[in-house]
Amino acid sequence: xxxxxxxxxxxxxxxxxxxxxxxxxxxxxxxxxxxxxxxxxxxxxxxxxxxxxxxxxxxxxxxxxxxxxxxxxxxxxxxxxxxxxxxxxxxxxxxxxxxxxxxxxxxxxxxxxxxxxxxxxxxxxxxxxxxxxxxxxxxxxxxxxxxxxxxxxxxxxxxxxxxxxxxxxxxxxxxxxxxxxxxxxxxxxxxxxxxxxxxxxxxxxxxxxxxxxxxxxxxxxxxxxxxxxxxxxxxxxxxxxxxxxxxxxxxxxxxxxxxx
Length: 260
Fold this sequence. Notes:
single chain; NADH Oxidase; 4-stranded antiparallel sheet
């Protein structure tokens, strides 16, 4: 592999869940937010926003929603949001009727998907910049444990939807790098390999990866190694998602349409 400072930053990325109790200075915050704004945006719609959660009671509420107490201790805490609400306001000022999701052109499933993509790209840009400055981060999919509560707590209006959270701070732990599967299990040439030979290759290669993962110790549970990768997949694949995790009805309640 070739390398440089950016590549080394990305290769050494690890989730940090314990932070030094020190605020992040305003210049650093401005830098991180500006970097996020420079991420790619589909059709230049800029259809995402990020809410910085500063109030401690709100941080505590986020920790309750995410079932992770460390969320409340993050010096910097953001929720990234798919946002077609701001574009609706802009379109209204130009005489476009955006009151009806049936006719509002940015409320359809494609734009919902693209707005989510844009929010993730912006979050990743901010996360990478934070790591390059010696900070630590953890991406918070756990905030989606209760989307209704999240929408209520942060007053998310019509045509917005929560995507992911991001906690940032000075690291107070040094977790091991989590293993990554062999590249040839995730990178393919020209087509997706789905024939019998490919299935056999996946099975054979996963066995070795299982052993590597099983030797990894997560700081959240240091007294035992984590489960083998295939066991983790099987466990999650056999679970039924509860109603709180159903995206379509909640997104439709926010004005998005999945039938168009």
